[in-house]
Amino acid sequence: YAISRQNLVIVDEALGRLPARTRQAFELYRMGGLTQRAIGERLGVSAALVNTMIRDAVQALTRCRHLLEAE
Protein backbone atom coordinates (compact mmCIF):
# COMPACT_ATOMS: atom_id res chain seq x y z
CA TYR A 1 0.00 0.00 0.00
CA ALA A 2 1.12 3.50 -0.78
CA ILE A 3 0.56 5.86 2.11
CA SER A 4 0.88 9.60 2.06
CA ARG A 5 3.06 11.38 4.57
CA GLN A 6 -0.05 13.01 6.09
CA ASN A 7 -1.73 9.63 6.52
CA LEU A 8 1.43 8.21 8.05
CA VAL A 9 1.40 11.03 10.60
CA ILE A 10 -2.24 10.28 11.41
CA VAL A 11 -1.47 6.58 11.92
CA ASP A 12 1.52 7.43 14.10
CA GLU A 13 -0.66 9.75 16.18
CA ALA A 14 -3.26 7.00 16.60
CA LEU A 15 -0.56 4.64 17.85
CA GLY A 16 0.84 7.39 20.05
CA ARG A 17 -2.49 7.71 21.86
CA LEU A 18 -2.29 4.08 22.96
CA PRO A 19 -0.82 3.16 26.33
CA ALA A 20 2.95 2.67 25.94
CA ARG A 21 2.82 -1.05 26.69
CA THR A 22 0.01 -1.59 24.16
CA ARG A 23 1.96 0.20 21.44
CA GLN A 24 5.09 -1.75 22.32
CA ALA A 25 3.23 -5.07 22.19
CA PHE A 26 1.73 -4.17 18.82
CA GLU A 27 5.08 -3.11 17.38
CA LEU A 28 6.82 -6.23 18.66
CA TYR A 29 4.09 -8.40 17.17
CA ARG A 30 3.58 -6.69 13.81
CA MET A 31 7.02 -5.32 13.10
CA GLY A 32 9.22 -7.49 15.26
CA GLY A 33 7.56 -10.78 14.38
CA LEU A 34 7.51 -11.98 17.99
CA THR A 35 4.88 -14.38 19.25
CA GLN A 36 2.38 -13.31 21.86
CA ARG A 37 4.07 -15.60 24.35
CA ALA A 38 7.50 -14.08 23.66
CA ILE A 39 6.09 -10.56 23.98
CA GLY A 40 4.42 -11.52 27.26
CA GLU A 41 7.70 -12.82 28.61
CA ARG A 42 9.50 -9.66 27.54
CA LEU A 43 6.86 -7.36 29.06
CA GLY A 44 6.19 -9.51 32.12
CA VAL A 45 2.52 -10.12 31.31
CA SER A 46 0.40 -13.04 30.15
CA ALA A 47 0.00 -13.98 26.50
CA ALA A 48 -3.75 -13.34 26.96
CA LEU A 49 -3.06 -9.74 27.99
CA VAL A 50 -0.74 -9.33 25.01
CA ASN A 51 -3.57 -10.57 22.78
CA THR A 52 -5.87 -7.94 24.30
CA MET A 53 -3.30 -5.18 23.81
CA ILE A 54 -2.76 -6.15 20.17
CA ARG A 55 -6.53 -6.22 19.62
CA ASP A 56 -6.83 -2.74 21.14
CA ALA A 57 -4.11 -1.41 18.82
CA VAL A 58 -5.71 -2.99 15.76
CA GLN A 59 -9.09 -1.49 16.71
CA ALA A 60 -7.50 1.96 17.06
CA LEU A 61 -5.90 1.62 13.62
CA THR A 62 -9.16 0.37 12.13
CA ARG A 63 -10.95 3.47 13.42
CA CYS A 64 -8.12 5.57 11.98
CA ARG A 65 -8.46 3.83 8.60
CA HIS A 66 -12.20 4.50 8.51
CA LEU A 67 -11.53 8.19 9.12
CA LEU A 68 -8.94 8.28 6.33
CA GLU A 69 -11.28 6.53 3.90
CA ALA A 70 -14.03 9.03 4.69
CA GLU A 71 -11.88 11.92 3.40
Describe this entry's structure for a reader.
The protein is mostly helical and 71 residues long. The protein is 77% helix and 0% strand. It has four helices and no strands.
Brief synopsis:
With 71 residues, the protein is mainly α. 77% of the residues lie in helices and 0% in strands. The protein contains four helices and no strands.
Q: Please, what is the average pLDDT?
A: 89
Structural class label: mainly alpha
**How many helical stretches?**
4
The description of the largest β-sheet is:
none
Strand content: under 5%
Query: Oligomer, anyone?
Result: single chain
Distance between the termini: 17 Å
Tell me the number of strands.
Answer: 0
Q: Which stretches are poorly predicted, pLDDT < 50 over at least 5 residues?
A: none
Helix content: over 70%
- The shape is elongated
What does the radius of gyration come to? 13 Å
- Strand/helix succession: HHHH
List the helices and strands and how they pair.
Elements: H1 5-16, H2 20-30, H3 36-43, H4 47-70
Helix pairs in contact: 1-4, 2-3, 2-4, 3-4
Keywords:
71 residues, mainly alpha, 77% helix, elongated
